[in-house]
């Protein structure tokens, strides 16, 4: 498998990474809508322990979700040292010699840890300027840790610590989202968020000509909730009112966005929004996405509380395993995958 990170530098963009003009993104500095900023929500513990202030935070999250499908959180309880530790260990992994990464290279999506390039949705056409680690990260067990790489030395311990703290943050957010929607506080607990937590560590090396490449295709996430560490290098864009906006880094923040399952269980109130990744020529960019998943046999459909005469059910019930298969068939296309589950007349 050819990894972009196996080459020290790229003097030019190989033809297989060059997109046709109609599929290219604007250069980062000229990105349309780059003046629009995502809401930033403060999760300071003191605020969450006060019922009145907690209600305001929950309302703020739902308001941001309804308008953008994305928001950023600060004072989230994940230690800065823990974030830095895992990001540094991941960067060291990508910097390792090719032969040390080779045993982990695989397109087998069932593996608990693997490294690959581009995306499985390029369908053998133009490739995306991206290497990535895809792994299971929670719940942590000795067996799971044994699948993680032993090098660099800090990788396993830093991943376990990072995963535990981010998982706790995700549960706090799900509780606040439920409260903000007027649902029972435990609505998202259990099978709906109890699947194996997945993680994508995306690595985008400096690109000689960002104007002809993409780091990652426009897509919506298939799961329930994403908690993303973007780092201090911009590159993520989200759809907003028909155009792309740049998600500018906020020091110490996590970016939160909703997956398809959130859209379906809230009957369209909190939508999953398309996003993509751009490349740049100056520095490498790395993002760490933690994906909160339902259990494979979880029955999913609009919550009864979110359905009314004015807002009838937009989606049929299904088992999450069925959604995963449909997502792959639709090659991550937002409209195509939702069409499988949409009730007619909506």
CATH topology: Jelly Rolls
Rg for CA atoms: 20 Å
Q: How does CATH name the architecture? A: Sandwich
Tell me the count of domains.
Answer: 1
Please identify which CATH superfamily we are dealing with.
Answer: B-lactam Antibiotic, Isopenicillin N Synthase, Chain
Structural class: alpha+beta
Q: What ranges have pLDDT less than 50 throughout 5 or more consecutive residues?
A: 28-33
Helix content: 25-40%
Structure notes:
The protein is α+β, with helices and mostly antiparallel strands. The chain has nine helices and 14 strands. The strands form three sheets. Strands 1-2-10-7-12-5-4-3 form an eight-stranded mixed sheet. Strands 6-11-8-9 form a four-stranded antiparallel sheet, with no helix packed on it. The protein has a two-stranded antiparallel ribbon with strand order 13-14. Residues 195-294 form the Fe2OG dioxygenase domain. This is Fe2OG dioxygenase domain-containing protein. It comes from Triticum aestivum. InterPro entries: DIOX_N (IPR026992), IPNS-like_FE2OG_OXY (IPR044861), IPNS-like_sf (IPR027443), Oxoglu/Fe-dep_dioxygenase_dom (IPR005123), Plant_2OG-oxidoreductases (IPR050295).
